[in-house]
Amino acid sequence: MPIWPMNSTNYFNYPESNLATLLENVERLSKMGTWEMDFISQSIYWSEGVYRMMGYTPFEFEVTFENGLEIVFPEDRMAAIAHMNEALAGEKEYEIQKRLIKKNGEIIHVISKASVLRNEFGVPEKMIGVFQDISEFIITKEKLKKSKTTTQVLLEKLDGIFWEVDASTLEFKYISPQVELITGFTREEWMSEPDFWQNHIHPEDRDQAIYYCDLKTSQNLDHSFDYRFIRKDGRIIWLNDRVKVISENGKPKTLSGLMVDVTAEKNLSLALQDEISLKQNLIQHLPSSIFLLDEDQNFLLWNKKFEEWSECDPKEIHQMKPLDFFEEADRPQIQNAIIDLTISKRPVVLECHMKTKSGKRVPLLVSASRVIYKNQECILGVSQNISELVANKRALEESNKRYEILSKATNDAVWDFDVLSNQLVWAEGFNTLFGFDLDLVKPNLDFFIHRIHPEDRGRIFLKIQEFMKPNHPVSNWLEEYRFLKADGVYAFVVDKAAFIRDSEGRVIRVVGAMQDITERKQYETSLTNLNIKLERNVRELAISNMELEQFAFVASHDLQEPLRMISSFLMLLSSKYGDQLDEKAHRYINFARDGAKRMQQIILDLLELSRVGKPNEARVELNINSILEEVEANFKKLITEKQAIIARPILPNIQGYRTPVLQIFNNLIGNGLKYSKTGIPPKLTIQVKDADKEWVFSVKDEGIGIEKEYFDKIFVIFQRLHQGEEYPGTGIGLAIVKKAVDFLQGRIWVESEVGQGTVFYFTIPKA
């Protein structure tokens, strides 16, 4: 219901002089003023509020169009003229945010709104408007931008709805939490329905709003427009939508913007068509609550905002006193303020909390002064809801507190450089890591730069200059350099920083964190030295391998020739002079021939060992069954003599090198046949298991077995567990197997029990 109904004594249906006086006091307390431009008389009128806002008296400043344009900030003049021309042409309502230059040179930010009064032919006769000083709000916003959590705080605390949609489908990708407060709908409701926004625009505005948005988007033009929106509770509100078009390859991709509830402003703008109605509606639709008290502290007048904040209806307000609306803790200062007003008659300003009907606490900034209304002294109060300012201040304090805690908790040295004020702040880490007494050292940018090692300083300074350029594409910085500590020793540091920019791309703040990586650098140096040593060892090993190859060549050619000669002459000696030699001589000849034979086998085994790991073949698909058949053919005579059994299933084909695999099976099967129990036919079992990334082979025998203490020694060259004629050998076979498995990048191990037999396991990777 209206605050002042037509039949109510509270309605502002009083002589215009009273309304003018009341409006003048409202203007003074709420930092606003009205103006009129008469196109018939070619005159311009300023209210006292405008003169006061600009710092002039009516006698100091002649209000003309030219003089009025002169006090507009130069960069805003063309926009102001363009907005006025569009309003006069009937293209749009006059509403603009601009900067004005006060008498003392101070620049203030204002919102100017106006309505055009036309005659019956549609010709403009008069333009009536209002200036609202929003400098404090602008300054607060700028301060808030310096906070580390600027973006999130703004999104959550903005007096509007920040949103982002797909340009082609108009489907919402993001919408800020304020949407529920302003429209009544939850974020989920907005996001779940593709045409949600279009479907809730007022039917009379829907087609025009969608057409205008589509047109400007197709032209890649940012735009702003007003329309009526139907809230969830059925109420109709006016929204001002300010849209940013983000294009990719010349085509609109994303739209982002801010929906602001301009219902109050819209209602005020419509009310400007009638001067008296303007003054009534101006009071009614201000974002501040207004009240008027008589000498006995009874409420005479109040506006809708007062009802809204207090949650009381007009009948209840009539029966209440000012102190009834405030908490017990605030009542003494409220009462003292009323006393001060009564005695000194000077205006008072105080912060307090209104207690609503439902028990909520609304933080207010109350300005009050003595005024004359209907020939009696009254108290006029104007209250501003400072919930947003209080929340922003709290958010800023929390941000600073988190910053301090983070600085103490981390091992980093955190720093913060405010470009606009040229102030550099070092956190506790500079004391912890680098030994600076922060009570004595007052750092600045020049001090910081000169702590950098001379060999690194030029590079870092050029990098800083590059990142400070406006609209530099990269905002995150990471550099390593040497930094001079308080004790005069240089530390290696890695410095990470974020360059924060304003809307025009200029750097306004840089926040960074330094880590001491001296130990890491020392480790890297030692690692480099170790790599150098390793490379030297590799070269020496290569030389050793080359010498081993040369030895193998000599062994395979030069050493075997004398052995063959010895064997031949011993055979000749035995055959030609055998009947002349006694049994002892024949035994010595056999010893010599057997030694030569074993020496020749050692040379052959060494030659085979030297060739392991140097296959002259490609990695191919191997038929393991075919390889085992070849091995069995090699041992055919021994298998027949010992009546041996070799059991194996059909084995899979694998990828690998043929020669090493053949060497492995040849030596393991040979060992299984050799170390069998006397008088018992040997039995060997060969199996394979698919173990995901590798094949696991096993060769099992039922021979004499191996004691556990020798499990690791048997793979070492020349390590034999049995001497003499019972189990002849060179001690090289298992060394060949181990080297072949290593070449194939596999593993080998043994399980055995003396008297029960042995199982050799080895793996071959699939890849």
TrEMBL record:
It comes from the Bacteria. It holds the Pfam family PAS_3. PROSITE patterns: HIS_KIN, PAC, PAS. CDD domains: HisKA, PAS. GO terms for molecular function: phosphorelay sensor kinase activity. Residues 554-767 form the Histidine kinase domain. Residues 94-146, 223-274, 477-529 form the PAC domain. Residues 15-91, 147-207 form the PAS domain. Coiled coil: none annotated. InterPro entries: HATPase_C_sf (IPR036890), HATPase_dom (IPR003594), His_kinase_dom (IPR005467), HisK_dim/P_dom (IPR003661), HisK_dim/P_sf (IPR036097), PAC (IPR001610), PAS (IPR000014), PAS-assoc_C (IPR000700). It catalyses: ATP + protein L-histidine = ADP + protein N-phospho-L-histidine. Keywords: Kinase, Phosphoprotein, Transferase. Its EC number is 2.7.13.3. PANTHER family: PAC DOMAIN-CONTAINING PROTEIN, PHYTOCHROME-LIKE PROTEIN CPH1. This is histidine kinase. It comes from Algoriphagus sanaruensis.
